[in-house]
Specification:
45% helix, 270 residues, 3-stranded parallel beta sheet, 6-stranded parallel beta sheet, alpha/beta, globular, Rossmann fold
């Protein structure tokens, strides 16, 4: 038996859930972690004695890809001029832990022209729509009820994707799949240093302190003002995803892990 885990906070599980966890670790021949922070937590909990590897979720590069036609169609749907200011995008839940309020504050402080697109849903939707009304020139769009199949449509309309996740005592970003999907669409990414985000972005985007409002404003402003920097990060992100997160790459890593487990078991039987 093997299993895959995405738990990247060292939590106490009351009975019987803690018993289930220990039973799984005791009986397994190996385990997989969603990310580096997940592996660190599992090892810290005393489960490092079994073979294990970090293998994250992947992305379908036939679906998530740069698509000029999608971009044009989405701008028409949003009633935006394609030649207008760059679009800072957000994709995910509208909740405090995802840094919605920090991103809005950072945009407020930027003097460079920008537009903002928020795609998702959650408890802060009303806050977002109230904030958007400050901008009478129709610079902000809030789009909800978007199925995952339509995510590439909106990602392709963004010039920057921001992921300002904010760690809490009970949560930190476990992966940041929106970052992987954005990079696959050729969108430069800026993320906080919450949980797994720095490992996902690597050197292919910008990683900023979670609560550094000034740093977020400065970094976003710099990218808004520099098409060449956005193009460079877009190319780096796309190559990063192709090498690390494409589903064929993830599948080969799974196969290699299971083959090593098989060979180890056969070796023990000889």
């Amino acid at each position: 038996m093997t299993f895959w885990t995405a738990q990247n906070i060292n939590k106490y599980y009351p009975p019987p859930f803690g018993w289930f966890e220990r039973y799984c670790y005791r009986r397994c021949i190996g385990w997989l972690a969603c990310g580096a922070t997940t592996a660190e937590v599992s090892v810290a909990r005393g489960f490092g004695g079994k073979p294990h590897e970090v293998i994250p979720l992947g992305v379908d590069l036939d679906v998530f890809r740069p698509n000029v036609e999608l971009r044009k169609a989405t701008f028409r749907t949003l009633n935006w001029d394609e030649g207008g200011p760059p679009v800072v995008g957000y994709l995910g839940r509208f909740i405090p832990a995802k840094g919605i309020e920090l991103l809005c504050g950072a945009l407020d402080a930027i003097e460079s022209p920008w537009r903002a697109l928020f795609v998702g849903g959650g408890t802060l939707e009303k806050y977002l729509r109230t904030w958007a009304r400050r901008y009478s020139d129709d610079r902000v769009r809030v789009v909800t009820n978007v199925p995952h199949d339509d995510v590439p449509v909106y990602l392709n309309s963004m010039n920057i994707l921001a992921a300002p996740s904010q760690s809490t005592p009970r949560w930190r970003e476990q992966l940041g799949r929106m970052l992987i999907e954005a990079m696959a669409c050729g969108v430069p990414v800026v993320g906080s240093d919450s949980g797994e985000i720095p490992f996902v972005i690597g050197d292919s985007g910008r990683v900023l302190p979670e609560r550094d409002l000034h740093g977020w404003s400065e970094s976003l402003a710099a990218l808004l003002e520099s098409p060449s920097q956005r193009e460079l990060l877009a190319a780096q992100g796309l190559e990063h995803v192709r090498c690390e997160y494409a589903w064929p790459v993830i599948a080969r890593r799974h196969l290699g892990f299971f083959e090593r487990l098989r060979d180890a078991r056969h070796g023990n039987l000889v």
